[in-house]
Amino acid sequence: MTHVLVTGAAGGIGGAIAEAFAAQGALLTLADRQPAALERTAARLGRRAAVRTADLALPDSPAAVVEAAWSGHGPVDILVNAAGLYPSLDMADVDAASWDRLFAINLRAPVLTTATFARLAMKEGRPGSVVNISSGAAQRSRPGGGPYASSKAALEMATRAAALELGAHHIRVNAVSPGFVPVASDCNPVSARYAKAIGTNPLGRSGTPEDIARAVTWLAGPDASWITGEVLRVDGGSSTGALHLPRIWQLDDAPDPAAALEGHTR
Predict the structure, then answer these.
(1) I need a labelling partner for 198 at 20 to 30 A (CA). Which of 88, 94, 138, 146 fits?
(2) Is 148 a catalytic residue?
(3) Which DSSP letter does residue 29 get?
(4) Per the database record, which ranges form the Ketoreductase domain (predicted)?
(5) C-alpha distances in angstroms, 219 versus 100, 201, 216, 225, 259?
């Protein structure tokens, strides 16, 4: 039975990823710092899942989560780093504490879980697969999102670096980069105005946690066995360009191209 460790499993995307793997019959270890929400995720799986309450911002916590999952329920086959933090923070307002906590969760934690996972797998001569959850912000920042964008850009480089070094040990490391996915998060609340502005994309709808979960399970699984060091953009085409901008030669009274997307779904 495949053993999957999912961090950030109490969140909308992390929870959906856990459910997708459970539907495939996997054994799940779920980690998050919110015990009540974590238990709710475990209850939705319809099968037994181990839960580990952990604050991944603490230096020793990421390694401890992987080691506990490994020793408690057998070797981990797939590691999904879905835990993340998105504070609204202008670059002019950054201080050391806010920057360090953001990078501790968004970058250091997945790097340390991956390192621990790799050491344990290499020691036992086991293959493995790691999927990090990045963001479209890694390629394009927005007001108030500079520190977050910086952390995700660094995560994508760490993903490629780990893939380069661990490939010889049959450990694949990839990332999934979601576009805008509403999850009604208490930790990372999003206003309706922001959601409408950022949700524009060629496919004309916001993403769902299930869209991301399907990409993660595929990328972690055997059908993607010759893929490593890649970042899979799952964003409805948002990263292709700025569809909401008018043509440069249009008159001021020309129709708004973004308006044509409203109500369009697929």
Answers:
(1) 94
(2) yes
(3) E
(4) 2-179
(5) 30, 23, 5, 8, 34
Q: What is the pLDDT of residues 107-147, one digit of tens each?
A: 999 999 999 999 999 999 999 999 999 999 999 988 999 99
Report pLDDT digits (tens) over 70-103. Answer: 999 999 999 999 999 999 999 999 999 999 999 9
Residue spans of the domains in the chain: they are: 3-241
Which tokens in the block code for residue 6? 């999912």
Amino acid identity for residue 67 in this structure: E
Q: Is 230 helix (H, G, I), strand (E, B) or coil?
A: coil
State the DSSP string of 105-116.
IIIIHHHHHHHH
Is the distance from CB of 130 to CB of 83 less than 8 angstroms?
Answer: no
Would you say the C-alpha torsion 184, 83, 237, 220 has a positive or negative sign?
Answer: negative
Residue that has been written with the tokens 């969760």 in this structure: 105
Q: Alpha-carbon distance 105 to 88, whole Å? A: 15
The single residue of 148, 162, 174, 261 carrying the catalytic annotation is 148
Q: What own/partner pairs with CB < 8 Å and gap ≥ 24 does 251-259 have? A: 258/200
